[in-house]
């Protein structure tokens, strides 16, 4: 395995150029105008698996965008690692905030990435990260050091909720059979503070619609006398949190996992600098649920956030109008034991119940998924910890993240396997935002670390 460093040194320019080619294709799953590009990306991913030396590569049809599959079996008696990632990306909007076009990757240094970072949509989430696995496996195949079997499953619908994946897992249970799932689609605390993600939040995403009068009205002639859907919606949304920023939906917290003081104290040991946090975001103060620290608020506590709100006149100048309708998109981040379908129902019932007479309310669920926590005494966690310790020179700390990867809970349910979340991004890499980037150092560090995971995992399995 030690040859990985030589291999990276001789091939790093090629690795980066190959990633750049992949980043040029705008695989935006949310926008059907890009569906050809999404399919094109699947083909490019398949080629990269072929070139890495994988066998039986395939573009597997689903109800939605295809899953790219590939494998290398060296001995059926050895363990099998299933690598999951996603080749689709978020829409790049708002375009005018990008310093360089989102699908024309450039490498520039930043404060946290003095060696340079690749700027492009998908650089960190998740093309740059799953590509580390393709390159790490290429190394192990070419150097005959692959210690166990590997399967790849790279999907194209993660950013829109992985809708087709539950059926795909059920249909391909045997093909996807594995001992452990390995995903790089999360991050580390810092380049000098390695960490392994041990928890993801669940998600319930809904859209709400409030309808008042049957048409837009003159705000002078009718104003004050009819329900204004935008006023009403604002009030309804405001009432979803109380003065302590607790969510007011009855039953919302019933199943929330309560951590012991000891567990909370253990988690509080992970390095976190509140001043740096505020400074990085240009905010004078943080905001959130009373009784919890910032890092608890975004990891072990559930949330409710408006993601978008619209209605009425938003064009240039002023127009005196009472709109007939108002809309909002709302996401709730959930913690272990909260069931996203139940929460969606609770939200719907509550939202309908608080609507004043005079408006009609409609709630449409979009997508969701369950949260996930993984133990730190498993072989997989130990192998990941040993691998990071080897390449970072420091033992990683376990950390729960606020983001969601709904497929992870489904993997456990359908394939009965645990997932190791071995990500290499930084929170400041601006995923889903303009100017997304991924550190070149992080990209290469991932390629260096992954082969050690295979080595240690296989060795631990034999003990
Ligand atoms: N890779 C992210 C999730 C993530 C990022 C987890 C950073 C932890 C740290 C993933 O691509 C993502 O964006 N997931 C969505 C959920 C999905 C259903 C749209 C999310 O968390 O909003
Ligand atoms: Mn992702
Ligand atoms: Mn994402």
TrEMBL record:
Record InterPro entries: Bact_exopeptidase_dim_dom, Cyt/Met_Dipeptidase, Peptidase_M20, Peptidase_M20_dimer
Enzyme class: hydrolase
Limits of the Peptidase M20 dimerisation domain: 199-358
Gene Ontology molecular-function annotations: dipeptidase activity
Pfam families documented for this protein: M20_dimer, Peptidase_M20
Keywords attached to this entry: Dipeptidase, Hydrolase, Metal-binding, Protease
EC number of this enzyme: 3.4.13.-
Coiled-coil residue spans: none
This protein's name: Dipeptidase
Native organism taxonomy: Bacteria, Pseudomonadati, Bacteroidota, Flavobacteriia, Flavobacteriales
